[in-house]
Structure formats: C-alpha cells, structure tokens
Design brief:
CATH superfamily: NAD(P)-binding Rossmann-like Domain
Structural class: alpha/beta
Distance between the termini: 50 Å
Bound molecules: nicotinamide-adenine-dinucleotide
CATH architecture: 3-Layer(aba) Sandwich
CATH topology: Rossmann fold
Order of helices and strands: EHEHEEHEEHEEHEEEHEEHEHEHH
Strand content: 15-25%
Number of domains: 1
Number of strands: 15
Number of helices: 10
Largest sheet: 7 strands, parallel
Radius of gyration: 20 Å
Helix content: 40-55%
C-alpha cells in the first residue's frame, strides 16, 4: 500500500515507518526537521521517499491509500518557543491533511494527545474537555489538537472521509529526544552521564508511560479496522508512577551515582513553562473494540531506553575517534 507518514523523522513517526516498511509497504515521509530524531539517510538508504518540507508546502507526488498524521510541534519545553504560531500551525496542518485525505480518498489516522482532557484524573473518550482558565503554551497546544480533532470528526459527518483519532498518553522509549523536555530521556541521559537527575516540583506528579512499540501497534490496528469517525485513548494504566519514583528507578537501573534533585522547572525552561496535570487513561474502549492492550512494564521501557542511549553513546564515541585518527 502507498502510505504517507507526516512527521516520519520524529520519534513516533520513525518507529511507525520502520514497522510499515518491514511489512513491505511503499512509504513516503514528509517532515520539516523541526524536531526530527533520525536523518533522512536512515530511511532513504532503504528506498523510502523522504520530503524534507512542511506539510503546508508538500506537493504529493501521487495519491496515498493511508495517511498517518504524526507531525506536530510537541514537547513540554519545545512548545514554549512557538507560542501564537503553535495554535495556528496545528490547525493549519490538520486542515491540510484532512483536505489531502478527502481528495485522495485515503484513510487518515489523526494523532492527537491526551492533553485535550485538560484537568487531572482518569479519562475516557467521551469525557468533557476541560479548558484551563490559565493561558499557556501548553493550553494552546491542547486546544489546537482538540480543534484538529473536531475539524476531522465534523468532516466525517458531511463527507466520505475515513478518519479516526488517537489520543496517546505519554509515549516513551528508544529514540525519544530529551530536547523537547520529555522526562524519561532526560533522566536516562543524566544518569548515564553522572549528572544531576532533576525532578520537577516535589516529584509526586504521576504519569502512565507506554512503550512506543505498543503505541505503533495501536496505530496500525486502528487504521486497518473498519471503524470510522472514532476516538481512541491508548496508554498503559498499569504503568502509573510518580516522577520521583521514576527517577529512583532510572538511577538504580542505570547503575548511576547521580544525585536526584528537585527543582522548579521555571528555573530551567523559564517563566512560561507549565507542568501538565496527572492524567491516566481509561483504555476500555480500545481493548473492547480492537483487542489492543499495552502490557510492557515500566522496567522494560526504562531498560530499552538505557540500552538505546548506551548504544548511541558508543556510536558517537566510535565516530569521534575515527575522525581523530583520520585528521592526525
Ligand atoms: N511523545 C508523546 O508522549 C506524545 C504524547 C501524545 C501525543 N503525541 C503526538 O504524537 C505525535 C508525534 O510526536 P513525537 O513524540 O514523535 O514528536 P517528535 O517531535 O519526535 O516528532 C514530530 C515530527 O514532526 C515534524 N514536524 C513538526 N511540524 C511539522 C510540519 N509542519 N511539517 C512537517 N513535519 C513537521 C518534526 O520535525 C518531527 O520530526 C505528535 O502529533 C504529538 O502531538 C506525542
């Protein structure tokens, strides 16, 4: 099948592209490299077509049968530098992929976020979306995503568009970058480098982490199901953990001597930084309708992330010693 992945050089999109490529699909990626975690050569060497432009400027070379919309400005710290543009860009790119999918009669999977729920708690798909009274970049991100969802679902009511919505809760695993402010790669990198592991606030905030490989399975299952116009939560309610506890686990598993310190995130990312609320997924709908259930433990997720970071470190060490030898 001809498949388009927007944001295919990013964390989630690149894992999805790997899986679909291995299933012999004809993959095209569009990614403007604002926060990519792999380079185009990673895919181009295997014959995957990569367009390094924004979705807004992308000229499709042909029609596609499936479009996975993963591209977005994302990350608790990253969103801050895009305020104002953020909301505009999320709705603009959402409109573009909806338009493309409708025109091509392609199925669309719209990757949204659990942040649309706003407040803290355990959430199921038809719960009210609570829009915080406090203005922040994070609010702009979640309202932008919610608007994208509504645009897509409204289109289902007036056209033949085949779209479903995925609301992931805290995806983690190999290749995730610490740059956007994501917590697990931050902790693992600090632990492996013997630097301070900085926990934001008092560390009692909770998250429910899901392995990226399991999230990719959910995406493909939703896309290939006969459901249309549905919204699915995907996450790991069994992996709920306090962030302070996560830091301790990472330290032990990485055999690190790093001190764990609690800091105010605003001293790291500036006054515009806002912590997210504690959100836990109710995954009853996806379990019942698709038989999908995440089973990967938090320990396995941490171990995979440590192994990936160690492998990347030895690769870059090998590359710099090769460079030293050739320049001497
Ligand atoms: N990581 C999580 O925990 C999480 C949780 C919920 C939802 N999501 C959603 O999952 C999707 C993927 O997130 P990720 O963690 O892989 O982030 P990521 O930053 O690793 O990947 C996003 C990719 O999109 C690209 N991109 C951004 N704007 C673009 C544009 N206008 N045109 C083309 N490419 C563009 C970036 O360069 C990047 O490669 C996003 O839509 C995000 O909102 C992620």
């Amino acid at each position: 099948m001809r498949i388009l992945i927007t944001g295919g050089l990013g964390f989630l999109g690149s894992h999805l592209a790997d899986v679909l490529f291995n299933q012999d699909h004809d993959i095209t990626i569009v990614d403007n490299k604002t926060s990519n975690v792999v380079e185009e050569s990673y895919f181009e060497d295997r014959g995957v077509k990569v367009h390094t432009v924004s979705i807004e400027e992308f000229e499709p070379p042909h029609d596609f049968e499936r479009i996975y919309h993963c591209a977005s400005i994302v990350g608790p710290a990253a969103v801050i530098s895009y305020t104002t543009f953020l909301g505009y860009n999320i709705s603009q790119t959402s409109f573009r992929v909806i338009e493309m999918a409708e025109k091509m009669q392609a199925r669309l999977l719209f990757v949204s976020t659990s942040e649309v729920y706003g407040g803290g708690g355990v959430f199921k798909e038809d719960d009210a979306k609570i829009i915080d009274g406090k203005v922040s970049a994070r609010l702009e991100y979640s309202v932008g995503k919610l608007l994208g969802e509504i645009m897509a679902l409204d289109k289902v009511r007036v056209s033949e568009l085949h779209v479903n919505i995925l609301r992931p809760f805290n995806i983690v695993g190999p290749r995730q970058s610490s740059k956007g402010g994501f917590v697990l790669p931050r902790f693992v990198e600090a632990a492996l480098q013997g630097k301070e592991i900085t926990v934001f606030g008092d560390g009692t905030q909770v998250r429910a982490f899901t392995h990226v490989a399991e999230m990719v399975k959910a995406m493909v299952q939703i896309m290939e199901s006969s459901f249309r116009g549905e919204v699915f939560n995907a996450g790991s309610p069994q992996n709920v953990i306090q962030i302070g506890e996560l830091a301790k686990k990472v330290k032990v598993m990485a055999r690190s001597q790093s001190p764990i310190v609690c800091v105010d995130p605003k001293t790291v990312y500036g006054q515009l930084y806002e912590q997210t609320n504690d959100r836990i997924p109710n995954t009853g709908k996806i379990e019942k309708m698709l038989g999908w259930k995440a089973v990967c433990s938090i320990e396995k997720i941490i171990q995979d992330t440590i192994d990936y970071c160690l492998a990347s470190q030895s690769k870059s060490l090998a590359a710099s010693s090769k460079q030293l030898v050739s320049s001497s």
